[in-house]
Amino acid sequence: KMPQVAFFFGRSKEIIQFMLECDTDGILLEKEFDIEKALGLIPETVPLFGECGDFDMMATATPAEITDKVHRCLNQGFTTVCPPADVYPPARIENIEAFVRAIREYE
């Protein structure tokens, strides 16, 4: 069975409840959702995914800034984080590598 991750637009408690009713293997929150509110609604056994950063982060930030941002998101309670939805050609390869490395090396 391929794992299924639920994602629905919205920031309400009802959205979380609806995703859980879908018998999902994980939940992806949109960037604006209050992580503190979500943690109180999602069982610890359900992986929680979140978007980390904004659309220009991969083009304008330094690798150190990206590592810091990824670690801050993970410290908030996400199981893992996803890059910004819009990784455009100006994104620098060293920033993409820093994003992946920050997740792999996180403790």
Structural summary, described in words:
The protein has 107 residues and is α/β, with parallel strands linked by helices. The protein contains 5 helices and 4 strands, in the order E-H-E-H-E-H-H-E-H. The protein has helices at 13-21, 35-39, 57-60, 63-76, 93-104, and strands at 5-6, 26-29, 48-51, 80-82. The chain has a 4-stranded parallel β-sheet, covered by helices on one side. Helix 2 (35-39) links the parallel strand 2 and strand 3. The longest helix has 14 residues, at 63-76. The model has no long low-confidence stretch (mean pLDDT 89).
The count of DSSP E runs of length 2 or more, i.e. the number of strands, is: 4
How many separate helices? 5
Q: Please tell me the overall pLDDT.
A: 89
- Alpha carbon gyration radius: 14 Å
Secondary-structure-based class equals alpha/beta
Distance between the ends: 29 Å
Order of helices and strands: EHEHEHHEH
What would the principal axes of the Cα set say about the shape?
elongated
